[in-house]
Design goal:
Layout: E1 2-6, H1 11-21, E2 28-30, H2 32-36, E3 44-52, E4 55-64, E5 67-76, H3 81-100, H4 114-124, H5 128-139, H6 143-159, E6 168-175, E7 177-178, E8 190-191, H7 195-222, E9 225-233, H8 241-254, E10 262-266, H9 275-283, E11 288-290, H10 298-303, H11 310-323, E12 327-334, H12 341-354, E13 358-363, H13 375-382, H14 386-399, E14 403-408, E15 419-423, H15 430-437, E16 441-445, E17 450-455, E18 460-465, H16 470-475, H17 477-483, H18 485-494
Parallel strand pairs: 1-2, 1-3, 6-9, 6-16, 7-8, 9-10, 10-11, 11-12, 12-13
Antiparallel strand pairs: 3-4, 4-5, 13-15, 14-15, 17-18
Bound molecules: iron/sulfur cluster (SF4).
Amino acid sequence: MKLVISPIELKYEIEAVVKIFFPAERFDFLSEDDIRKGAFDNDIILVRKRSLGGKALLYVYADVDGKRARKVSSAAENSGERYCCEELSRLLYGVLNALTGIISEWGILTGVRPVKRVNAMIKEGLDKKEITDRLSGEYFVSAKKCALAFDTAASQERCLKEFEDEKDISLYISIPFCPSRCSYCSFISQSAAGDTVKKLIPKYIEELCEEIKYTAQITQRLGLRPKTVYFGGGTPTTLSAAQLVRIMKTIAENFDISGVSEYTIEAGRPDTVTAEKLHAIKENGCTRISVNPQTLDNSLLERIGRAHTVQQFYDAFELARAVGFETINTDIIAGLAGDSVEGFKKTVDGIIALRPNNITVHTLSIKRSSRINSSLEKNAALSQPAREMTDYASYALYEYGYKPYYLYRQKNMVDNLENIGWSEEGHESLYNIYIMEELQTIIALGAAASTKLVDRKNSRLKRVFNYKYPIDYDRNFRLMLDRKKEIENFYAEKE
Ligand code: SF4
């Protein structure tokens, strides 16, 4: 399919709206000159903003599968880029909806954080009805998603009442190793099954501990105190009990963790969970753990390369409960190739029956770097009735008293849906809210970690990136430590 976007600066937003309707499509980007030269015949979408007579003329035309539609609008010249881009997105949505019949429940909202928008409207003083009117009128969001976004914002308001201290931060520790690689994975996580990666781990832990010590000195100079700690990756429990304890002790000895109220370690892969590891992390302060089945269907687990069984998940979950963590989370995925609505319902019901404190419902997102980005698996996933699946999950979770408390969207999600964190009241993960709503500085350590510095008062946000792969993390280690000056510079500008 050909796309003509003029000016090309609008490419990112406009392409995101087109992808709602044609998620599997590859696009050729043409210029208006190419059109004048007749470099197309059909399957083309044209989106244009042009200044004429003191006005911005906005024009969308599409010719898809032999059907054509167009929409035109105008705006005052000084309406601003953002308004024009949104208006073009609305026209485009109308045109493509007319040609394909597809409806997106999030309308033209294609960004990662729809709840952030709702929180901003609440801050402006708008009530639920006004927010719903704006979301549905300006962005074409369905009534169901308006209610979901509003409920999520309400949970956050309840959880964040006490959070006001700008010196509070969170720590993120990246452990980019897994026992094997899942087919849908787009993380940099490396399979520790082979000797090459296994050999990297001891050196990685050495350097990670050095980075922890170095960074702790900076945060102490700045008077910053961790409020939450989060080990992600990868699967942190790929490491041995002794390795995990070494990292946890390094954190405890170098940061002031007396104010930490939530300490999460992801143990996503049940095949990495042992009683020794769980006891060790619990004794060293871990309060929240994540054990993830993704599905309760063995044949699907095999198809997605998870290398563990449903029974292994049940065993790991029961072990986590017996060890006595305050909060246990489980992740499941809607839209896996080979699943069915009935199959997914069984997974939802089976997980709810276990009564974990948190249930995170992901919708499959087809990332370029994942193995399922091959046409066969991709098409099988795209034809999944993910909307029906997630609707059932929401219905059942509300029924059993869970509430949505964080929500985010990714590119290329099946049915343009979302990931939702559900929680029993009082078990919401503060870390997940901080990171999704960009409310607190997250100091991130390890390969592929990205520190996010947040200055809420002045609406400033800055990222400081670490090197991605463990091998580059090692090669550029000193250079990376040097980059941490940016943390001090950021806080100096803030004062
Ligand atoms: S467990 Fe998670 S991080 Fe590890 S390979 Fe699977 S999807 Fe990727």
